[in-house]
From TrEMBL:
PANTHER family: DNA UTILIZATION PROTEIN YHGH (PTHR47505:SF1). Belongs to the ComF/GntX family. This is ComF family protein. Coiled coil: none annotated. It comes from Actinotalea lenta. Gene3D superfamilies: 3.40.50.2020.
Length: 238
């Protein structure tokens, strides 16, 4: 809490600028905000979510792609002291949850599981950021379905995901362990950013081995898939 308070005090005395583009006097400008209003399903672009036997991957809803202004803003929020972006990120994940709710019609009760961060990262940041996202998801879902945050998955060891390649992220996924299980209620995972999908896949596996049904995941953003235009500099991606 002391770290977070210091960050907020500094925000009062230092010039504020948009975390996405640098526009002065606003933490998050309207132009950059548009990049977190592209809500949709993005599991097809996440290779580590592929399942065996031709089963469809875990559905993943995000508010936008982890590129451009969003790719600059999320690290600033997580590790750059930009506590003023918390409401922005919570609003983004709530919009993703609102679309996920349409696919959850008929589900009466739901456990919302934040992907756990390393304890050292939580202490450094002064709060559990993904936990705040999960609380926002529950607030968005309200009573349809009736949602509650569950710390069903814990993290024991591992490294911060920032800067890790695909293989290292896959190895890092072994740090997740089951804390408790409620096999009678579907679960929804929540994370800040999804890159390869290795973390979500690991959390799903942990829960599935305990007989828990994981119905999907929501996040602020996901890494855009590698499409043909993206392989040729100078061409715009659809």
């Amino acid at each position: 809490m002391r770290t977070r308070l210091l960050q907020e005090v500094l925000g009062l005395v230092l010039p504020v600028c948009c975390a996405g583009c640098g526009t002065a006097e606003v933490p998050w400008c309207e132009g950059c905000a548009e990049h977190l209003r592209v809500v949709g399903r993005r599991e097809d672009a996440l290779p580590r979510l592929a399942r065996a036997e031709g089963s469809p991957p875990l559905p993943v809803w995000t508010a936008g792609s982890y590129a451009g202004p969003v790719r600059r803003a999320v690290p600033a929020w997580k590790d750059g002291g930009r506590a003023d972006l918390t409401d922005v990120m919570v609003a983004a994940v709530r919009s993703a949850a609102a679309q996920a709710a349409e696919a959850l019609a008929g589900v009466e009760h739901l456990r919302v599981v934040p992907v756990p961060s390393r304890a050292a990262a939580v202490r450094r940041r002064g709060m559990d950021l993904v936990g705040a996202l999960a609380a926002g998801v529950c607030a968005e879902l309200g009573a349809a379905p009736r949602a509650a945050v569950s710390r069903a998955v814990g993290r024991y060891g591992g490294r911060d995901q920032v800067g890790l390649g695909a293989r290292a992220r896959g190895r890092n996924a072994t740090a997740f362990r089951l804390r408790h299980a409620d096999a009678d209620v579907p679960h929804l995972l929540v994370d800040d950013v999804v890159t390869t999908g290795a973390t979500l896949a690991a959390c799903e596996d942990v829960l599935a081995r305990a007989g828990v049904l994981v119905v999907g995941a929501v996040a602020v953003a996901a890494t855009p898939g590698i499409t043909r235009p993206a392989l040729h500099p100078g061409q715009e991606q659809d």
